[in-house]
Specification:
With 338 residues, the chain is α/β, with parallel strands linked by helices. The chain folds into three domains: 35-96, Beta Barrel (OB fold (Dihydrolipoamide Acetyltransferase, E2P)); 102-261, Rossmann fold (3-Layer(aba) Sandwich), CATH 3.40.50; 275-337, no CATH class. Helix content is 23%, strand content 22%. Strands 10-9-8-11-13-12 form a six-stranded mixed beta sheet. β1 and β2 (48-53) form a beta hairpin. α1 packs across α9 (318-330). The longest helix is centred in the middle third of the chain and has 14 residues, at 137-150. The protein is globular and about 65 Å long. It binds zinc ion. Residues 289, 292, 296, 298, 302, 305-307 line the site of zinc ion (ZN). Zinc ion (ZN) binds at residues 289, 292, 296, 298, 302, 305-307.
Length: 338
Amino acid sequence: MGTNRRYDEQDIEHYDRPRRRGTRPRTKERPSYDDAATGTVVTIDRGRMTLLVDGARVTAMKARPLGRKAVVVGDRVKVVGDVSGAEGSLARIVEVEPRSTVLRRTADDDDPVERVVVANATQLAIVTALADPEPRTGLIDRALVAAYDAKLAPLLCLTKADLADPETLLSTYRSLGVPWVVTQRGGRLDELRDALAGQTSVLLGHSGVGKSTLVNALVPDAGREVGQVNEVTGRGRHTSTSALMLPLPGEGNRPDGWIIDTPGIRSFGLAHVQPEDLIEAFGDLDELTEDCPRGCTHAADEPECGLDVALANGEVDPERVTSFRRLLDARSVPPYLL
Ligand code: ZN
């Protein structure tokens, strides 16, 4: 197990008010917040969180009882105070509900500090252009490792299919069973919409792959959403590098899923990902490693790995093992800038 796990609650921003010990009696009884409203954190800008509470956009900050506990985009929170969303109002977040998933990153592979960047997502959409710029499989591999580690379903979203045949790239990922959709410039997005429907999808991709174009096409008023954040913070531009969670238009007022844009994620350090975290995502391979020696990393140079036994007996698709081992290796490749 990675020792980094203890940094789970590390704040994503500096919350540096010193804890003054002994100035007030500690009580075991935590206040009850039965009358608190429930909201979802859609973005964070310099310690101010924007929440959606019953459809209203509410500005809030962390209340004292939360201490250093991080609040991140996607968190479902309990909030008290003025939740009207009226201009100038400020509510207080008093509780963070348990997270179903967490997407973490370390800034670099040798950075011991792990930070949760998004909570409660269900899918990681890796947006990659098929050409201009050329796809970088190293980067896709690293994003896949992050997805499997976070127990998010991966989705390859391959853009600019009008420029290059997706087959070359898809052949690299087929044996892993990674689902994929392709889009063309100016083309329809039905296939992508279907893949995102009902999910909370983190969109990851470096500049030039067409991610912003997709976001604007999927959420026609994405610009307005950002504009509202500006209103709230009173600044002219949304300067935060925080993730931004946007509702996908659905029937009536109900969103048909969510997308989370991630302008702030420039790289994924994967130092915290252990072989066991990764192989769990591939149940058939996991079973084959039951008799591995203790501490086996399942890499190609392990002397008695169950994967090699299965390969020798013809019990497993060699390409699947090779691809899995490529993902294992991707953990130790220096992080690519997105
Ligand atoms: Zn093994």
